[in-house]
Amino acid sequence: GHPEIFPLVFTTKTQEIFSCRADEDVTEENCFKLIKKEDIIQDLKTRATVSDFHPVKKVILEYPGEELLVVFDAKFQYGQNFYLVASEEAKENLLKPPETVEEKKDDNEKEEESEEEPLEIQPYKPPVHKPWVSLGSEKEVEEESVKETVTKIKYRISRVRRKFGAPITFTDKNASHVKDSYLECASYQDKSFSIKRLEKDVGIQMVPKLREAITQTTWTYPKNAATQYFPMELSNEEKEESLSSGKLKEFLTSVRLRMEIALQQNEIMNVFFDDWKALTEEESSSGGKPDVYLKAHQSFTDLHYFKDRTISCVCWHPTISGIIAVSAKGRLSYEERVNLSDKLLLQQPVILFWCSFDPIHPQLVLECPEDICCFQFSPSDPSIIAGGCINGQVVLWDVSQHEEKLQNVKPVADETEITAVNMVNASILNKLQCICMSPPLMQVQQSSTEPPLVRCCAVSSIQDSHGKPVTDIHWLPDYSEDNQMDATSENRAETSVQFVTCSPDCSILFWNNPAMKSPSEKSKEDIFGMPLDVPDTSKHLDLCWKPLVKVLICMHSEYKKSSSVPYTLDVPAKQSLYTERSTSSKNVKVLESISTDLLVGTEDGDIVYSDWKVEIDSDSEKQNTQKYTIHTETINTLQRSPFFKDIILSIGGQIFAIWKEGVTNGPILHSSCSAGRYTAGKWSLTRPGVFFIGRDDGNIDIWDLLKKTYEPSQLQNISDSMITFISPWIASPNQHFLAVSDDLGVLHVLEVCQTLSQPSENE
């Protein structure tokens, strides 16, 4: 019956804002509070729907007066703790209620009587019952109440009537008469309470419900549609006007100093350093659980040489720290290479040398006749590099004239070093240098030139090379030397002069290094019949360089497509292809006890353990060979452990296996099938029980055999594409790196954590 009254609920926050706290600012006796209309509107703007005045927002905006009356309803007469008066008349009536003449007279008479007569005690009036208003408390009571939902189980215990009140007789027994003074009351089966079980044969036949349904797909008429987007570009006049404007120069001049300071700070201190992670490393060293991870250090790529190509091989320089060589090949099949042979001639296959000080510009470029599948530095002379091509040819390079340049590589500039961390800022820095360049930076930029191009010094003959791509290449040990007389002799010079290659054509070829000859080869004529007065050069070997020895691994007819992937070679015996020659090796010791065993991986996933020393009998030639079938796909990695020469790791398909020479019944350990396909792998150089395996989904499995042998101890994502090669490197005793390449042509250099690089005691 009061349309001008609107009940409201004031929260504690609202009471504090408008100074109308219950029982403090307003009480049951002094229950009125005037609030300015402007303050209420401001509260609606500030707190929006959270404001307690939001339900009566329209009423407040239409109110004609400047102050609104809020009344504290202590007895909840209108259902809430406060109510708002929305009319001026009701406000005036509540603040100043009208009094009649009779009421005034009665008041005057009461005042006079109160002055004359003493105060009378009012009689007690019992409270009047009011209807109960629900505020939602009954729901809470119902939720908190306990209800029995489980049906109770009833038990009935009965006994024969005649046994009620029957006398019970107890007897005494001396405990000492019993053995060990212990009397056991063993349980027994009472036949009177045994339950007889009846067998019942029941047959149940499950028949699925059949339902016939017909679905018709709505056919729509196909329509060709194309959308072309064009970027909004400025014209040449607008570009020149913008670049030559004074505002741009003033802006670049004003921010140049700040940019240089910011770039220097990024180089001095790693702003992304995680202090919490460092604390966990300290805790792990003191006995806590250590962290196993690979930290991104740098990344290398080249948009000119490695565009639309995949990295095939990665090798760290054996002697020069921070130098890494990378080769690439096209992501094409044999049929695609034949169809696109004209376009492939426009792409120059190369091997790039990168330096960790300058991840943007390559330091050296090796020219290649074809795409390189694998290459290796000579262990005794790192300036000699041997590589295998995709067409089966073998190439040799000599970079001795450029070793000084590789050793003296320095950062790009002293003021602002451009590393992998601030590669994003490189473009901004270049613009600053173009407009307001200081003299030292301008000199550094002008001095930068293209990397030198090194041509190959020898290429093998196509007819005498492999018939398929060279899959692996390795230098022979420096303490031995092979010749065409089926003998392994001692190499007194202790320099690696021979290397071996393999290919899917089932052949293994041994090659002499024409650029470095051992003492046994320094005779009146060299292996190609060149006299001594000819200058010592390898240019005459282009397309006529032939292998010294060729060995064919022939299994059965179904293995004619085998891909031999040998890793470590201990100077095996072999069969000669070419005419024998006389050598001045009278004083050279022949090694009889050298091992001629070799481990080979095939395209079919077989592991072949063969003895290459051919025993020639009167009847036939015998070759001892053992075959193991563990992998289901091509073997891509076959590596001996750097700590145990009789332990070999093989990777192919979705599993890996660890072999031990002398154990003929199979591998000593092999994994279960992984979620992804394994594509590359390598042993750790410092921990015997750790190795890294790359997968086709861009992840790397870190295996630590001391912790787990059934699953990798850590799985880390490196790239969005397939991992193609892994190469570890030790920069210092406290800094170890892992080079990982992917199918997109990017080389990632990762820093190995201390847990994976420092071996444990007696590992």
Automatic annotation (TrEMBL):
<dbReference type="GO" id="GO:0036156">
    <property type="term" value="C:inner dynein arm"/>
</dbReference>
<keyword id="KW-0963">Cytoplasm</keyword>
<dbReference type="GO" id="GO:0036159">
    <property type="term" value="P:inner dynein arm assembly"/>
</dbReference>
<dbReference type="InterPro" id="IPR050687">
    <property type="entry name" value="Dynein_IC"/>
</dbReference>
<protein>
    <submittedName>
        <fullName>WDR63 protein</fullName>
    </submittedName>
</protein>
<keyword id="KW-0853">WD repeat</keyword>
<dbReference type="InterPro" id="IPR036322">
    <property type="entry name" value="WD40_repeat_dom_sf"/>
</dbReference>
<feature type="region of interest" description="Disordered">
    <location>
        <begin position="94"/>
        <end position="123"/>
    </location>
</feature>
<dbReference type="GO" id="GO:0045503">
    <property type="term" value="F:dynein light chain binding"/>
</dbReference>
<dbReference type="GO" id="GO:0045504">
    <property type="term" value="F:dynein heavy chain binding"/>
</dbReference>
<dbReference type="InterPro" id="IPR015943">
    <property type="entry name" value="WD40/YVTN_repeat-like_dom_sf"/>
</dbReference>
<keyword id="KW-0677">Repeat</keyword>
<dbReference type="GO" id="GO:0060294">
    <property type="term" value="P:cilium movement involved in cell motility"/>
</dbReference>
<feature type="compositionally biased region" description="Acidic residues">
    <location>
        <begin position="109"/>
        <end position="119"/>
    </location>
</feature>
<feature type="compositionally biased region" description="Basic and acidic residues">
    <location>
        <begin position="94"/>
        <end position="108"/>
    </location>
</feature>
<dbReference type="InterPro" id="IPR001680">
    <property type="entry name" value="WD40_rpt"/>
</dbReference>
